[in-house]
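Review form for a predicted model. The reviewer records the input and the model, then writes brief findings.
Reviewer: anonymous (R2)
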Amino acid sequence: MSHQANHRHRAPSPGRRRLAATVLATVAATTVTAALYWAADREGKATAAAGPGSFTTARAHLGTGRGPTGASDVMRYRVQVEDGVDLNAEKAALAIRKVLADPRGWTADGESGFEPVATGAVDFTVKIATPGTVDKLCGAAGLDTGGEVNCTVGNDVIVNLKRWQSGSPQFKGPITEYRALIINHEVGHRLGHGHETCPREGAPAPVMMQQIKGLKGCVANAWPYDRDGTYVAGPAVP
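Model under review:
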């Protein structure tokens, strides 16, 4: 199956995206049996167990740039951070915009584009929330995030603050790269992509692989496409 890593891959058509958005209570969440609600991040800060469940929306014109990136099939999105946590919404939105605008990201499919907004209709919302709030939001769709992982439910890309701050033991690179993996994986689900697994020993892990569960011989990777514009693919798995 290693030949799949050399194939170009295009995102689903707009019709398939709409279908995915309607039916998606995605397998993006990993079932975790141990719920650890406090964790120190790489700077020694603590992640709170649960917040109030209310959110602040990032102002799109501050720090995130103007206008869409990518192709004509532009998806509008907003970034929200749970109130009461030690994370600036505008700084988080800037980091997310940089990920979505990166040439190794989903815009490399030649179809997808992204535009950050603060008001009006959106195609998806990125919510960064405490582990307890993530469990509530994802659990409402029947997903068990166990205080540990992220999920995508319908039009909501729900990011666990613990992962945003602390990364993953499976990912040895910079925390900024792990944040790119979070966004690319979960937005990939919003685009209609399912999970993939390692194609061969030593290959870069597909971004749609659940890398937090183990790399299975692959090398950690945060991007759906390589620098040559080739999709980093692996065999599909449930």
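Findings: Confidence is low (pLDDT under 50) at residues 1-12, 15-45.
Further findings: The CA atoms of residues 33 and 190 lie 25 Å apart.
Recommendation: see findings above.
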